[in-house]
Automatic annotation (TrEMBL):
Protein keywords: ATP-binding, Nucleotide-binding
Annotated family: Belongs to the IS21/IS1162 putative ATP-binding protein family.
InterPro entries: AAA+_ATPase, DNAC/IstB-like, IstB, IstB_ATP-bd, P-loop_NTPase
Organism expressing this protein natively: Desulfoferula mesophila
PANTHER family, per the entry: ATP-BINDING PROTEIN RV3427C IN INSERTION SEQUENCE-RELATED (PTHR30050:SF4), CHROMOSOMAL REPLICATION INITIATOR PROTEIN DNAA (PTHR30050)
Residue ranges occupied by any AAA+ ATPase domain in the UniProt entry: 103-240
Gene from which this protein is expressed: istB
GO MF terms, alphabetically ordered: ATP binding
Coiled-coil ranges from the UniProt annotation: none
GO BP annotations, alphabetical order: DNA replication
Descriptive protein name: ATPase AAA
Source taxon at top rank: Bacteria
Signal peptide: none
C-alpha cells in the first residue's frame, strides 16, 4: 500500500463502521467540487452530512412504504375528481396533509363498489408514509384472518402490540364478507384499542344501518360505531363505478360489428 492511500482506507473503514454510506460514496467527488469552489472545510462537511441526512430520510420512507404492504401503489395525481363529483375534494386534500394522524382522528370512506375508496385510502396512507408515519394496509378479511390465526397460535398479544405501534391502520373493504362471532369481537378489540391512540382508516360499501349484519351483535356494533365515529372524517362516494363507466365508454367507442 502506498502511503497516500492509507488515510482513505482508514476513512472508508470509519465511514462504514459509522454507517454513513452516502458520505462514503460521495466524499471524494465532493472534495473535488469543494476544492474547485474553494469552499472551506466546514462547507465540505455540511454538504456531505446534508446528503447523508436526505438519503437516510429517503431510505426510511421507502422502508415505511414497504412495511405498509400496499396491495398496489396509488397516488392522488392519478385520481380524477371530476369522475366522482360526490367526493369532497377539499376534505381529501386536507387529509393528504396528514394532520388527522397527529390528532389520532379516523377516516371513513363509504360508498358503492368501484367509486375509488381503496384508491383514495391508498393515496392518503401513502402520503402518510412519506410524511413519517408508520402505516399498515390490511383488507378487513386479511386482518381478521390474521387475528384469528394468531389467536389460535397464542401470538395474539404480539400482533396486537405490532398493530398498536402503528400511527395509521388501514382496514379496506369492510362489509364484503360477514365475520364470525370471534372475528367480529377481535376486530372490535382492534378498534377499541385504537380509540384516541392511533388513527384508523376504513373503507366500506356499507351504510351505517347495515353494519350490524356484518358484525352480528347490535350492542357490539353500536359501541364500535360510537368509538369509530367519535373523531372521524367521513368521505362519501355515491357515484357510478369508475370501472363500469370506463367499460361502458369502451363498448360505446367500439364500432358495431353487425
Ligand atoms: P372501491 O374501493 O371504491 O371499490 P377502487 O378504489 O378499487 O374502488 O377503484 C376501482 C378502480 O378504478 C381502481 O383501479 C381505481 O384506481 C380506479 N378509480 C376509481 N375511481 C377513480 C377516479 N375517480 N379516478 C381515477 N381512477 C379511479
Ligand atoms: Mg375497494
Amino acid at each position: 500500500m502506498k502511503d497516500q492511500d492509507k488515510p482513505t482506507v482508514l476513512l472508508e473503514y470509519h465511514l462504514k463502521k459509522l454507517k454513513l454510506p452516502t458520505i462514503l460514496r460521495e466524499y471524494a467527488a465532493m472534495a473535488k467540487v469543494c476544492s474547485q469552489d474553494r469552499s472551506d472545510y466546514m462547507t465540505y462537511l455540511l454538504r456531505l452530512t446534508e446528503r447523508e441526512l436526505l438519503d437516510r430520510e429517503k431510505r426510511a420512507a421507502e422502508r415505511r412504504i414497504k412495511q405498509a404492504a400496499f396491495p398496489v401503489i396509488k397516488t392522488m395525481d392519478t385520481f380524477d375528481f371530476k369522475a366522482q363529483p360526490s367526493i369532497n375534494q377539499q376534505l381529501v386534500r386536507e387529509l393528504m396533509r396528514g394532520e388527522y394522524i397527529a390528532k389520532k382522528e379516523n377516516v371513513l370512506l363509504i360508498g358503492n363498489s368501484g367509486t375509488g375508496k381503496t384508491h383514495l385510502a391508498s393515496a392518503m396512507a401513502f402520503a402518510a408514509c412519506a410524511q413519517g408515519s408508520k402505516v399498515k394496509f390490511y383488507s378487513a378479511t386479511a386482518l381478521v384472518t390474521e387475528l384469528m390465526e394468531c389467536r389460535e397460535e397464542r401470538r395474539l398479544q404480539r400482533l396486537q402490540k405490532q398493530l398498536q405501534r402503528l400511527h395509521l391502520l388501514v382496514i379496506d373493504e369492510l362489509g364484503y364478507v360477514p365475520f364470525s362471532k370471534i372475528g367480529a369481537q377481535m376486530l372490535f378489540e382492534v378498534v377499541g384499542r385504537a380509540y384516541e391512540q392511533q388513527s384508523l382508516m376504513i373503507t366500506t360499501n356499507l351504510p351505517f344501518q347495515q353494519w350490524t349484519e356484518v358484525f352480528g351483535s347490535e350492542r357490539l356494533t353500536g359501541a364500535l360505531l360510537d368509538r369509530l365515529t367519535h373523531r372521524c372524517h367521513i368521505i362519501e362516494a355515491n357515484g357510478e363505478s369508475y370501472r363500469l363507466r370506463q367499460a361502458k365508454r369502451r363498448s360505446q367507442a367500439k364500432p358495431k360489428t353487425n
